[in-house]
Amino acid sequence: MKKTVNFLKKHWLISGIAAVIIIVVLYSILKPKSISADTLVVHPKDFAQQISVSGTVISAQNADLNFADQGRIATVNVKTGDSVSAGEVLASLDTSDLEANLKSAEAALVIAKANTVTNTINLSDVTTEQNQLVQNAYQNLLSNDLTAASTTPNGYATNGNIQAPIITGTYTGPEGEYDITTYSSSASSGLSWNSTGLETSSGAVSSNTPEPLGTHGLYIQFPGAGPSYIGTTWVVEIPNKRSANYTVNENAYVAAEAARDTAIANAKASLGSEGANNSVAEAQVEQAQASVDAILAQIKDREIIAPFDGVVTNVNATVGQTSSSVDLSGNTSSNASASDISIDSVGTFQIQSEVPEVYIANLQVGDTATTTLDAYGPSVTFPAKVIMIDPARTVVNGVSNYKTTLQFLNPDPRIRAGMTATVLVTTSDTPNALVVPAGAVYTKNGSQFVQLEKDKKVVTQQVTTGTPSAVGEVQILSGLNDGDVVVLNPVQ
Q: Residue 278 phi/psi, 5° resolution?
């Protein structure tokens, strides 16, 4: 009996000690945590959602210029680094053949002026002849220097180095424009195009054979046709008012109309009168003058003229070499591997950046930004704003990005093309927001939590968050109140 009692006492003692140990362990695990970390008292404040990206400074305007005609280069008037003014002649082709034609036309003009009484009047002939001159001048106005200008947002969809389509032929239709879109197809080149506007037409993209562009005498050809053309859009404006010699051709057309009206009026007035011969002679004078003007326009085609004030960034033209046929707006033809002369504008600069897909939904044209340039360090800032977001994505290192262009708001002589920029874009401003460092929020079982200090203990609080900012803060949409004390380094 005594042995039994001693056995029970011994086991009760062991059981009691074990129970005490279990209670102590459970308490240490389950008791509220004491504060041993940094904390933040939350108060409402203005919260700016921001995106931080890098980019490169580019000129707001740049142009790759080429001759609008073929021939031997006679003069190159600039070198890399030179400042130029709009309208300045940068280079020219040999015009000796045209100069000879000009002298002949000017001589014919002198003779026409002298012939005031040598021909008999014929109203029908004068009318036919003058109408043809007007038609020729108008056709020249519509057909001269036709180019395909890119309307793809931000230049080109996938490759900014592709050459513009080449437009050839003599146009016989009305004024207007062709809007051209390229797309993938089962054509031999893998690409096709269609056009709207003046006419609806389509064809295969070809780099070897010009394809008819509608039914009014024009043809289109795509130099170096390849996948880089996919999704590009182009416009062919008729007439090409951006051409350097548009004004000359327009003036020639207006002059031809005026000459026709004058010639016909004089012919009618001179019928049966002694002044009939003089009226014919006057019409011939106008015709000779139109010929002189046309040759002067051709001479103008053999000049490269600066389209805006700027700085020469590259010169490939060399006196004596042969130039390929290219348009003055900067679009090279299939025969040209590089522009003859390149210029950049001065004073106004932009930033070109790649914004990751995760941020693009919050970014809008007009958003303001603060920019720093590596050359001057983070303490020197330059204000900017978003002016364009490319709708087509580009993939960089496996990440989808969208090319975004910002413009500096103020001219600054310290800004130069090619500089590396860090851009902080403000996408939204929220007043009276509760904001905590992003590191104070953690995720558990698909929900978000913070830890709060209450009565010198740590408690867990579920929260709902908004979009984090690029500077490491996040807005708390629900779950916190003004005055809550948040643990900055939560222990899960």
A: -65, -35
Instruction: Please state, in angstroms and rounded to a whole number, the distance separating the CA atoms of residues 251 and 211.
Output: 32
Alpha carbon distance 400, 388 (integer Å): 17
Structure tokens at 376: 């001057």
* One-letter identity of residue 181: T
**Counting runs of H as helices and runs of E as strands, what totals does the chain give?**
6, 29
**Residue located via tokens 């809007």:** 179
Phi-psi region of 37 (alpha: psi -120 to 50; beta: other; left: phi over 0): beta
Separation between Cα atoms, residue 346 and residue 81, nearest integer Å: 12
Q: Is 342 exposed, middle or buried (0-12, 13-18, 19+ CB in 10 A)?
A: buried
User: What tokens does 213 get?
Assistant: 């562009």
Q: In whole angstroms, give the CA distance from residue 221 to residue 26.
A: 82
Q: What is the pLDDT of residues 405-444, one digit of tens each?
A: 999 999 888 998 889 999 999 888 889 899 999 889 999 9
Nearest CA-CA partner of 304 in 76, 35, 39, 490: 76
Residue 438's SS3 state is helix
Integer Cα distance of 323 and 355 in angstroms = 40
Report how far apart the first and last C-alpha atoms of the chain are (Å, whole number). Answer: 55
Separation between Cα atoms, residue 164 and residue 228, nearest integer Å: 11
Which two three-digit tokens encode residue 96? 């000796």
Residues 6+ apart with CB under 8 A from 466: 49, 474, 475, 476, 477
DSSP 104-139: HHHHHHHHHHH-SSSS---HHHHHHHHHHHHHHHHH
What is the share, in percent, of the chain residues with pLDDT greater than 70? 84
In sequence order, the β-bridge partners of residue 403 are 354
415 vs 307: CA distance, rounded Å: 23
Instruction: Give this prediction's pTM.
Output: 0.42
Short-list 49, 30, 38, CA closest to 429: 49
Ramachandran assignment for 8, one of left (phi > 0), alpha (psi -120 to 50 degrees), beta (any other): alpha
Angle formed by the axes of helices 276-301 and 123-143, nearest 10°: 10
56-70, pLDDT tens digit by residue? 998 888 888 888 888
What is the C-alpha to C-alpha distance for residues 299 and 144, in angstroms, rounded to an integer?
A: 14
Which of 422, 425, 417 lies closest to 380, judged by CA? Answer: 422
Cα(183)–Cα(173) distance, integer angstroms: 26
CB proximity list for 104: less than 8 A, separation 6 or greater: none
- The amino acid that residue 13 corresponds to is L
H/E run at residue 213: strand 211-213
